[in-house]
Amino acid sequence: MKWKKACFGIFIFSLLLGLDQVTKHLAVIHLKGQEPFPFIQDVFELQYLENFGAAFGVLQNQRILLLAVTSIVLLLLCFLYWKIPAGKRYFPMQCTIVLIAAGAVGNLIDRLLQGYVVDFFYFKLIDFPIFNVADCYVVIAAFFAVVLIGFYYKEEELTFWKKEKK
Fold first, then answer.
1. pLDDT at 6
2. What is the 3-state secondary structure (H, E, C) of 93-110?
3. Which residues are catalytic?
4. Helices 91-114 and 2-31 sit at what angle, rounded to 10 degrees?
5. Which of helix, strand or coil describes residue 116?
6. Exposed (0-12), middle (13-18) or buried (19+): which is 25, by Cβ within 10 Å?
7. Which residues of 43-59 are buried (b: 16+ CB within 10 A; e: fewer)?
8. HSE of 139 in the Cβ direction (CA atoms, 13 Å)?
9. Which residues contact 58 (CB under 8 A, 6 or more apart)?
10. Could you give the CA distance from residue 123 to residue 137 in angstroms, rounded to a whole number?
């Protein structure tokens, strides 16, 4: 059952990662060197940005630190994913971990290959930092994690990661 869960996770992860990488590639082709493209006038636009920091521009020019932290987080996510019990009850937690991992790897690929992350979504109305699909995955997953841990799972259901099989 664990291998079935792992294969499902890898499949969804691959789809999410592919979507992130395709959108970044399209941003490079169509937005780099161009004026911002207003999607909804004065509200939302597509604007190319090379982000040398983490999500939303924090930790600028800290590439080694970001690579190290991302690698450690990915190892922890793999461990947690493997330890999550199979079954419908834990499916939301599995999806949350896959979302975080896909977002982290999507930006890690950019950082490794280019030294920066391609961002292109901009909410002009509120002047929100420019972001990308991978950032969306991480933010959505963080929200789900808070809801799941705070309201869905009982405390004893979250001890799976430290239980050893006898």
1. 84
2. HHHHHHHHHHHHHHHHHH
3. 119, 135
4. 40
5. coil
6. exposed
7. eebbbbbebbbbbeeee
8. 9
9. none
10. 17
Q: Which position has the token pair 């109305």?
A: 125
CA distance 37 to 158: 45
Q: Is this model's pTM higher than 0.85 or not?
A: yes
Residue that has been written with the tokens 């901009």 in this structure: 122
Q: Two tokens at 161?
A: 């990661």
Q: How far is residue 130's CA from residue 161's CA, in Å, rounded to a whole number?
A: 35
> Is residue 24 pLDDT above 60, yes or no?
yes
Q: Cα 156 from chain centroid?
A: 27
- The partner residues of 124 in beta bridges, in order of sequence, read none
C-alpha 40/C-alpha 21 separation (Å) is 24
Phi and psi at residue 85, to the nearest 5°? -60, 150
